Amino acid sequence: EGASYETDGLFVSAYPLPVPPEKYREEYLPQFMVILSIETEDLERTFETIEDLAEETKNKLMVWIVVLSAAGLIASFLCISLASNYLTKPLKWINDTSNKILSQVGQNYSETE
Question: What DSSP element (H or E) covers 49?
Answer without folding.
Answer: helix 40-104
